[in-house]
Each structure stands twice: as structure tokens, then as C-alpha cells.
Amino acid sequence: MKLFTSSWKIAGFNLLTVFALVIGLAACDAPSPGEPTDASGDSAAGTTLSGTVTIDGKLAVGQKLKANLSALGGDGAITYKWTKNGDSASIGKTATYTIKPADDNSKIKVTVSREGFRGTKSATVTIGIPNFWMVGETGPTDGIIIFDNTKHIFGDDWDYMEAAPEDLGPLAWASATETTTELPGGFSEEVGSGKENTRLILNAAADPKAPAAKAAANYEYKGVKDWFLPSIDELTLLYNNKTDTDMDFADAPYWSSSQNGDEFAWYQDLNDGSKDDEGSKDEAYYVRPVRMFVKAPVSIPTPTPTSTPEASATPTTSTTPIASATPTPTASSTSTPEASATPTTSATPTPTTTPAATATPTVSATPTPTPTPTPTPTPTPTPTPTPSFTAAPVVSLTPGDKQLTVNLTAAASPAPDSYDLYYRAKATVGAANWTAAELVAGGTRVTGVSFPYTISGLTNGAAYNVTVSAKKTGYADTALSNAAEATPTLPSFTAAPAISLTARSASLTVTMTAAASPAPDSYDLYYRAKATTSAANWTQAELLSGGTRVTGVSFPYTISGLTNGAAYNVAAMAKKTGYADGVSNVAEATPALPDPLDITDFGAAADGTQTASAGFDLQTYLNGLTAGNYAVNLTDDPAAFTSGGVTLQTGVHVSLRGKWTIAVDFAGTMFNVPANTEVIIRGPALQGKKGGNSSLVNVNGGKLVLHEGMIKDHSSRYGGGVSINKGTFIMNGGSIKGNNSGEMGGGVYLISNSTFTMNGGTISGNTAGKYGDSGALFAATGSTFTMNDGEIIDNSGIGVKFDLNTGDCTINNGLIARNSKGGISIHQYCGTIIYNGGNIKDNTSYNVSDGYGHFINKSGLPNP
């Protein structure tokens, strides 16, 4: 609107007065939301600021609003001021402003002034909930937008698909009772079907306990619960669009909700895109829930500039324009004007030529101009104060794994209608806390929370600040709690483990001296050689980052293959689901060659010796030996052998000394002696157990030497005490007694191509079952027996029996006596008896009429 400065009179009214009234009325109209407004002030000298200001940008959290200026004029410095909800406090002083979560549902205003001009220009917009997204952007629940369906390619009932910010699982597709059942329902593979698939899977008639679908359907993030297990085509959408996001995936398959028959369902690898429809329903794969939601994009309307002219006051008058006013002469007038002018009804009168008049109206001889009325300012009403909370809330935080639990320790007063929560990661763990105001302005907002409330999806080891705002109808939102701080982390063991080391040749035995508390699921072991024996020990962190790791160990545990003379550090780590790892002390020891025992078994000094006192775990020690000569001196009873016994490694030769008993607590083999290994027994008793199917000592290609000691009280199907297969057994002394075989060879069984040389000792009190023979010794295919001395006496059955194409039985000396079914039996087609000496007598007679062999029984043979 343009203001004319010339003064005209029409029938006694000054036109400036009319224009001022109209202008004043226009200034009373408030601008429409989103439109620019002007306000000319009187405080600055110069020309009134012209032009317009508008606001551009997306009305969404995290987006920038920009103040666009048009035709302001001049070249003075421009000042920007952003404010919110009519508050005079500035929230920004540049040409742009970034929308914060706390700006939701607020009016944001920018006011612009220019140096050298008076007045300002402004514009206002209203911020709504974020309502449009692009693929790769953070979605409304902190997930990632993976597909834009606003063109409704895959149906009209959803606009966007969002993937959860974290994995679940691994989990099976079906519960244990349904892994081979085709569940009722469609189970489509198409995009848009995952939600219905999930519902069908969890239907009461299908599999309501299905782990993968149930975990997806029960998933909740920031109060949002509409997640589901994606179909295979929806998983493929996620894979195809993942390059536009910053999501990471496990190097493992992910389940879909698309079923394929009774045993299988579709899965896909989200790293390389490979997929298959034959995933067994009992396999445990990962789950990444997704959700679909509807949200139409919104744009900011382009405002129509409205200029408010400068005015010093607002007259109180009707908004109806003055029209067709005929002035009334005063009482003293003596003449009537020749022409009467009627003002137009337009708010802006159009000037006309002043009509000629024969007389000029006068008042008291001298005409007095009509005075311009002085406008009366409209009084500003006094606002009613908004009540405030009398007490702010107080919160505390409990850290957990990738989460913080917010506890309300003192409620706001009076009782609020609800609480909002704001949280924000600190720059570093040691940085100053965000203030409550900074948290509201820049933190993540969660509305309508109840306590305790858990914030999930956080980063372990990162510090966070949290504040709570009380909300109550009619009250100012000024009740902000303290800004609490905590760092998400896994809970720790209340007691760390403790270990000690025992040094041996080329090995260290680790003993657990104090277990972790609570009881861990398992232990890992870390060891590392020191730079020198005098160097400082490695720290726990250095061991864990640079040491050799052994998983799932039990104690005592022997670390083998070390270097003698080199110092090592060792630490144990306790592992428990849901707990931070608990690391033990760092122990140090140096493996070394011990002093050799005074033995001649190996023709050279032993590579390793061991003195075994009470409770020593001989089984673990022997199983851990590598190639070499070893001597063990038993000074007390060792621990009993458990299931599995000992299987010597290739090249191991071990000598067992002492007078104590080595026992097994299972009905199986104590020693397996394979090729290129040797067991020498000098004193200990090997005690077995009844009821088994394998010999107490099984020589399978290796060598067994019995100098002193016993092999006793064991049972097996063949060879209760000792069985030899393509190996060697030398008996120089000791005894084999009290053993039993289910079929043959109660004491000793030569299986195939084996050699048994008896230079002394006793085989007695052994029994054979099925055939009632060969109580002491049974020899089979290609095996030979040479008896140079010793006794085979008092066995149940034949003392020595050769069968199945065996070699020769040579008796040079010794005694074979008191055996229940004969002394020696050589089956036909077998070798011969070579009798050079000894005494075979007092054996019970046996029926030899069947002609199957030659028996030397009760009559015996005399000494030559």
C-alpha cells in the first residue's frame, strides 16, 4: 500500500486522516502461519527496511532451514535471529538453522534486520514430526530406511520399509517340535508379505514358539513394536539397497519368513547376496527385523509477502471504510457550497479537480480546518502467568550391555501427566556432561516414558548423558531433571580367576588356584614368550592382544611345544554369556630340562622327567607328551584315569617307576601304544575294571616292556590284560593276573603277526569264557611265543593255545603248571612246539579225541 503525502480536503475531511485509519486497521491483522511479516521500529535512524524474507527447507529433524532474502535494498550488514514459540531468546544467529528433536511441534521464526535501516522482516514455519525419508537415512526409530515405496510399486498400504538397527540371534526358524512340519499358511516370497508371513508362522495352529519369527515380532525399539521377519524378497531388497546405507551384517546367513515345504525355509547372506531355499528349520541363523509404515512427504508452502507500513499508533475504529459522507455546515454558515463532493468508498481515494465555488464555507468568519483525530492505543492485556512445577524430577542410571536403565529416584511435583526423556552421547568418556538444556536441544527424544525405562542400541564403552522432562497440562515444561551420566558395558565378574604355573621340559602346566565368580561358562588361555627372562611381565592387555589363545580349556592344562630356558607369561580369561571377560593374574615360569633320572631304559638321558606326588594327573601329563624319552617316578598314588585313557603320540617313549597303583575308573583301555611308541613298566601296578570290551593295555604296532609291577583285574572280549597287534611284548618280570576274556586270551592275546617273549614273571589266575580255554595266552595269525623263563600257572583253561595259522611256540625254560584244561595246545595247520627245556606238569587232562590238535596235558613233559 502506498502512502500519498499531499493534503486534500473533501467536504471538511482531511484525506490523510482517512488513509491513516485504513492503514492502521490493516496493521492489526496478524500474518498467516508460514508467511513473512514486517515490523518497523523507531529505534534506528534511516529508511524503513523493504523487501521480504522467506524460509526454505525440509520440515524434519536434522534438516536445515534457510532464510531467503528478496529485495531488502542497501548494503549494510545483515543480522539474523531465530526464535521459537514466541520466546525472545535466540536459538540461532546465522542464515540457516538445523532442526533439533526438541523443535518438534514448535513455531520457528527468523527475524532479519539491516544496518542503516529501521524495522525488520520476519517469517515463521511450524515444525512437524519428520515425515519423509530417503534410502540410507535414519528412520523414525533409529533404524535405516532400506526402501522407498512412495510410488506404491509393492502395494498401496505402506510407503517406507525400515530395517532394525541391530541383529537378533542366531535363532532356529522353527521350534523343536516343528522342524519337520510344513506349517499351515501361504508364506509368500514377495515384497510386502513378510508381516503376514510372520503372523501365519506364529498362529496358534502353526508354531507360536517359532524362535526367529517370535523374536522379530516381539522386538521393540524406542516403543515401536510393529516389526516382523522379512520375506525372502524383502531380504533381497535389504541386500540390494544396503550400499546406500552404513549397515553392517554378520558373515552368516539371515532367516526369511518364506517357508519351503516341511523341512526348509529361505535364507540369504546379506554380505554377498547368495540365497537358498533349503535352509533346515533347526539351523540357527541371524534375524534382522524390518517394519513397514505410512508417511506422506510434506513441503513448505511458498509464502505471499505482506508488507506492514510504519505506524506510530493503532487507531480504535471500525474497519468499515468511510463512504459518501456529506459534511454538515456549522450553525454560523451563511452560504452553501456550489458543489458537494462525495468521497469514494475505496480505501485509497482518487483525487479530483477542486470544484469551483461561489462561496467558501466559514466558521465564525474564519474557516477552521477539521483537526486530525489522535488515535487511542489499544491496551495490551496482562497475560495470566503459567504455573511451574514446584519440584523437578531426579534420575539415576544403571548401565548394561549396550543399554542404560533410567530410574526415577524422585518424581516431579505436582504429579506430571507424563515424562519425556532426552539422551545424547558425550564427545569422550572424560568430557564434561551435557547440560539439561543442551540435551533437550540436541539429544534424542523419547516421549511418554514410564520408569524404569531402558534405552537400547547404545555403544558399549561410550559415555551418555540423560535428562527427563516432566509434562503436565497447563504447566510450563521447565521441570528438567539432573543430567545423569553412565557408560553402557557388560557386568563384570565379582571375582577374577587366579592361576599358577609348573615348569617342565618344553611345557608349562597351568593350575587354577581360584575360580572366577560367578561360575563361568568356559575359560580361554593366553600365553606369550617374554623378550628375555629378566624382562618385565607382559600386562594383561598385552597378553590378550599379542599372545597365543587357547579356547575352552580345563585345568590343570599343559602348554606344550615351548622353548626350554625361555620365560613365558600366561593368563586365563573367564567367559560367561552376558558378562565382561574376567582376566586372571599374569603368571610367569620358564620351561627347562630337569635332571635325568638314574635309568637305562632308553640308552640315554631322558628328555623329560616328572616326580608325581599324590593326586597327580598322570593321564593329562602323558597325553600331552611330544616325541622324546620321558621318565615318571610315582612317589604316591596318582589320580585315576578317566574315560579315554592315554594314547601316546608318535615317537614318545615313557618309563613308569614306583610302587603305587595306577587305576582306571571306566571299563576300557588304559594305554594305547601305537607304532613307534613304547611303554616301560618298572614297579607300578596297572589296575583295570570289569565289564569292558577292550584290553587294559592295547599294543597296536608299538612296544610294551614289563620289568616289575602288575597288569591286573581287567576284563575284555579278547585279551583281558594285554592284547598285541603287530607289536612286541617283552615280559622280564612282574605279573599278569586276575584278568578275564569273554572268549579267549584271559591274560594275553596275540592278535596278528605279534611277538611275545617271556623272560620271567608270572601269568596266573586268568580266565577265558566262551570256549573255556586259553586262560593265560592265546596266539593267532602269524604270531610267535618264546618262553625263556617265568611261570604260567593256575589259569582257568589251557595255559598256552596256538590257533589260526600261527607261528612257532618255543619253550626254552620255565614252568607251565596247574592250568585247568591242559598246558599247551597247538591247533592243526599251525606252527609247532619247539621244546628245549622247562617243566610242563600237573595240568588238568583235556579231551583230545576230536583230532583238532596236539595237547600236552597232565602227563606233561619232563625236563630234558
Question: What's the arrangement of secondary structure elements?
Answer:
Elements: E1 9-10, E2 13-14, H1 15-27, E3 36-39, E4 47-48, E5 52-56, E6 64-70, E7 78-84, E8 96-98, E9 107-114, E10 117-118, E11 120-126, E12 144-148, E13 160-163, E14 168-172, H2 194-201, H3 211-218, H4 232-241, E15 253-260, E16 264-269, E17 275-280, E18 284-287, E19 290-293, E20 394-400, E21 403-410, E22 418-425, H5 436-442, E23 444-449, E24 453-455, E25 464-471, E26 484-486, E27 498-504, E28 507-514, E29 522-529, H6 540-546, E30 548-553, E31 557-559, E32 568-575, E33 582-583, E34 587-589, E35 608-612, H7 618-623, E36 628-634, E37 646-647, E38 652-658, E39 661-663, E40 671-674, E41 678-687, E42 697-700, E43 703-712, E44 715-718, E45 722-725, E46 728-731, E47 735-737, E48 740-744, E49 748-752, E50 755-758, E51 762-764, E52 767-768, E53 777-779, E54 784-787, E55 791-793, E56 800-802, E57 809-811, E58 815-817, E59 824-827, E60 833-835, E61 839-841, E62 853-856
Parallel strand pairs: 4-10, 35-36, 36-38, 37-40, 38-41, 39-41, 40-42, 41-43, 42-45, 43-46, 43-47, 44-48, 45-49, 46-50, 47-51, 48-52, 49-53, 50-54, 51-55, 53-56, 54-57, 55-58, 56-59, 57-60, 58-61
Antiparallel strand pairs: 1-2, 3-11, 5-6, 6-8, 7-9, 9-11, 12-13, 13-19, 14-18, 15-16, 16-17, 20-21, 21-24, 22-23, 22-25, 25-26, 27-28, 28-31, 29-30, 29-32, 32-33, 32-34, 59-62
Kindly provide the radius of gyration, computed on alpha-carbon positions and rounded to a whole number of angstroms: 51 Å
Shape: elongated
Strand content: 25-35%
What is the structural class?
A: mainly beta
| Extended strand count | 62
Q: Give the overall average pLDDT.
A: 80
Quaternary organisation: single chain
* Helical run tally: 7
Overall helicity: under 10%
Biggest sheet statistics: 16 strands, parallel
Distance between the termini: 151 Å
Low-confidence stretches: 1-45, 296-368, 847-864
